[in-house]
């Protein structure tokens, strides 16, 4: 899949990319977008497909494609089949775990985007975690 823009500069860019990729799926998909040093997508991977209302995400599944594609950073996101873009406590906890794992292996987590129907929430922008990137 070709990405029309050359790089991801903001959560809005990430949302637009994920929205194209996820389309109208009927269950929760947790996606990792691997980025190079210029924040250009090098790989897009579905790391987990959940049920209608739950998904279990582990850092090893998220960072495996990033390591294999030599990513400098990742953008993660998932859709909510309910249509709401309100993040849950579990979303915040997964994000914190991914950020900590990323620090250990040297791959930054730039943003976690929760997609709803025509809207999104950036967990970083909400202030739940800090990453070393300019994305917010």
Task: Please give a handful of descriptors for the protein shown.
single chain, 136 residues, alpha+beta
Care to describe what's here?
- Helix content is 29%, strand content 25%.
- The chain has three helices and five strands.
- The chain is globular, with a radius of gyration of 13 Å.
- The mean pLDDT is 84.
- The chain has helices at 11-22, 59-68, 89-105; strands at 29-35, 41-49, 73-79, 108-115, 120-122.
- A five-stranded mixed beta sheet has the order 2-1-3-4-5, with helices on both faces.
- It is α+β, with helices and mostly antiparallel strands.
- The two termini are 25 Å apart.
Number of strands: 5
Gyration radius, to the nearest Å?
A: 13 Å
Counted by DSSP, the helix tally is: 3
Helix content: 25-40%
| Main beta sheet | 5 strands, mixed
Average predicted confidence as pLDDT: 84
With strands numbered from the N-terminus, the spatial order across the biggest sheet is 2-1-3-4-5
Beta-strand content: 25-35%
Sequence of secondary-structure elements:
HEEHEHEE
**Sequence stretches where pLDDT stays below 50 over 5 or more residues:** none
User: How far apart lie the N and C ends?
Assistant: 25 Å
Estimate the global geometry from the Cα principal axes: globular
Category by helix and strand content:
alpha+beta
Question: How do the helices and strands line up, and which of them pair or pack?
Answer:
Layout (H helix, E strand, L loop, with lengths): L10 H12 L6 E7 L5 E9 L9 H10 L4 E7 L9 H17 L2 E8 L4 E3 L14
Parallel strand pairs: 3-4
Antiparallel strand pairs: 1-2, 1-3, 4-5
């Amino acid at each position: 899949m070709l990405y029309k823009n050359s790089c991801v500069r903001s959560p809005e860019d990430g949302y637009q990319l994920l929205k194209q990729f996820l389309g109208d799926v009927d269950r929760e998909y947790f996606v990792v977008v691997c980025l190079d040093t210029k924040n250009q997508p090098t790989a897009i991977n579905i790391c987990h497909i959940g049920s209608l209302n739950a998904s279990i995400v582990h850092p090893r599944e998220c960072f495996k494609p990033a390591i294999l594609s030599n990513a400098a950073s990742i953008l993660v996101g998932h859709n909510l089949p309910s249509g709401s873009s309100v993040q849950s406590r579990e979303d915040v906890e997964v994000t914190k775990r991914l950020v900590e794992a990323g620090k250990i292996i040297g791959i930054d987590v730039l943003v976690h985007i929760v997609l709803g129907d025509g809207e999104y929430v950036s967990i970083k922008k909400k202030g739940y975690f800090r990453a070393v990137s300019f994305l917010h």
